[in-house]
Specification:
Length: about 160
């Protein structure tokens, strides 16, 4: 059992929080020691039964090269909202922890719906989406009469001890 933390960094304008849309959010990861061109969706609410013995997982796959079976679980309670610092940055903050067996996550794609909250009015934006190959999002806070944005979205995986 090896745990990996997904950490996120980005610059924000007039926002104080960014979070996933809930337990049905699909974490799109690339994995395995072999280069796999496919993205794999891992959802906290999706459970897959283990083949031998008790246990359920959020994701299971068989490597097409070595035939080993690997599993990934979203660690319960590990999904955290990302909060901005005084410099309008989300700086290497923990987004989620994955419990991986036989799989090593190597890349994250932020596709899916995120939720952002405005600094000034606490207005919630429920439809924040990053498109394919995009690392930014922009909107407008009608109540606060100001632009809101997320730029330079980056993520890294950190192996936990």
């Amino acid at each position: 059992m090896v745990k990996y933390a997904l950490k996120v960094s980005c610059a924000v304008e007039n926002l104080n929080q960014l979070s996933t849309s809930g337990p049905d959010f699909e974490w799109n990861l690339k994995d395995c020691n072999e280069a796999d061109p496919s993205w794999h969706a891992i959802c906290e609410n999706k459970k897959i039964e283990g083949k031998h013995g008790p246990g359920t997982f959020n994701f299971k796959m068989k490597c097409k090269f070595c035939s080993n079976v690997g599993t990934v679980d979203v660690v319960k309670g590990s999904i955290k909202p990302l909060r901005t610092n005084d410099n309008n940055l989300i700086d290497n903050q923990l987004a989620v922890i994955f419990d991986c067996r036989g799989i090593e996550p190597v890349a994250f794609d932020p596709q899916g719906t995120w939720i952002a909250k405005s600094d000034e009015t606490n207005t919630q934006f429920d439809d924040v989406e990053f498109g394919a190959e995009e690392d930014s999002w922009a909107g407008y806070d009608e109540k606060g009469k100001c632009p809101v944005s997320i730029d330079n979205f980056k993520s890294t995986f950190e192996r936990l001890k």
